[in-house]
Amino acid sequence: MSTEIKIPVGLGGASETYAGLKWLLAALFLAGAGTLVLLLLSETQSVPWPFLLANFMFLIGVSQFGVCFSAILRLCRAKWSRPFYRLSELMTLAFLPFAFGVFLVIFFLGRHELLYWLDASSEGHASPWLSPNGLLLRNLAAQLAFYGLATYYFIMGLLPDLSQQNSEEGPEWRRNLYRRLLAMKARHDERQLKSRVYLLAPAVLIVCGIANTLIAWDFGMMLVEHYHSTVYPMFFIQGNNLAGTALILLLSTLLVRSTATRKYFGNSQLKSMGIMLTGFVLLWLYLFWAQFFVTWFGNLPNEFGPLWKQMYGHYSPYFWVMLSCVFFIPLLAFLKAETKKAWWSLLLVSAIICFGIWINRYLMIIPIFFDDHRPFSSLAEIALTIGLASGFLTVLLWLLNAFPPVSAWEIYEATIEDDPAY
Hints:
The structure is a single chain. By secondary structure, this protein is mostly helical. Helices cover 72% and strands 0% of the residues. It starts with 14 loop residues before the first helix and ends in a 6-residue tail after the last helix. The model has no long low-confidence stretch (mean pLDDT 90).
C-alpha cells in the first residue's frame, strides 16, 4: 500500500450515526420481506408481480453499472474519476444477494403471472430457449459470471491498498477477512495487481452487457407477444448507465459526510461527473429516438401498441414526466456551468434522473398488464419497493464500513503523473 496516502477502513467517527441508519434500513427491508412472505402465504395472485419486476429491473440495472463505471473510466485513464471507483464497485456488490434472491422468487413463484411464453402449450413450441429451464440457466449463468468477475475485479483493485495494520484493527470478522486478503496479496506482485484492473476492464464490460441484455430480453421485451427489437437492450443498458452514474454521485455524499475523503471530491470531480451525465443524457435520447422511430414507422400492432399505451391515455402523464426527468430537465440544467460546480444542484439533478429512469422501467412493464394502474396504490407495492431499496442500501453501508472507501493507490498515482487532476 502506498505510504503517501492513508485512508482509514470503514466509516470512522460516523460509525454510530450510520449504525442507526443501518438498523433502520434493515428493519424496512425485513418489513418488505415479511410483506412478500405474507402475500405468498395468502395467495400468489395477490403479489404485485409486475410492480416488483419493475423495481427489480431498475435496481439490478443501475447497481450493475457501478463496476462498469470503474472499468470504462480506467480504460479512458480518467484521473478525476478515481475517488469514485471503490464506491461504484461496492454499489454493484451490494445488490448481489438480491440479484439472485429476487430473480429466483420471480422465476419460481411469479413466472406464471408474468411470462406467458414459458407455457409451451400456448404455441406448441419446443425451443430450449423458450423453456423454463432455458430462461433459468442462461440468466443464472450470466449473473454468476458477472458477479464472479465483478468480485474478482474489486479484490484486485483492493489488494494494493492493504497493509498489515488492516488485519490488526477492527472487529474479529474484519481482521480475519483482511488476513485472507493479505495472504492473497502476498502471492502476487503489486505491479501486476495494479495492471490487472486495467486489463480486466474490457471483460467486465462484455460480461455485464451480456447479463443486462438477457434481463432486457427476458423480462422486458418478451413480455409483449411477437415484439422483436435489436435496440431494446441497448436502450435498457443506456438507461442503466445514466441512472447508475447519477446514483454514484448521490451515494458519494455518504463518503463526503462520513469519512475523511472530502478533499478528494473537488470541483474537478463535480464538473466531470456533470459532463459525463450530460453525454449520457444525449446518448439516452438518441437510443430512445432510435427505438421510437422504428416502432412508429413500422406501426406493427405488437410493437407500437405498448408504446401507444405509454404515450396516450392513462399513462400519458407518466410518459411525459419520465421524458422531462430523463432529458429536458437535466439538459436545461447542465447548459448552465454553475449546475456542474455545486453539490446541491448536481445531487438534485441526479435524483431527478434516477426518478425518471424508474418511471421508464415502470412504463416498460406495468402497461402490458394493466390499463389504468397507479404506482404505490397499495401498501404491498410501497412495502416491497421500500424493502428492496432498503436491503440494497443496508448491504452497501455494511460494505462501506468493511473496506477503505476510496482507492488510495490510484489517487496517489494520479498526483505523481504528468498533469494531475488534483
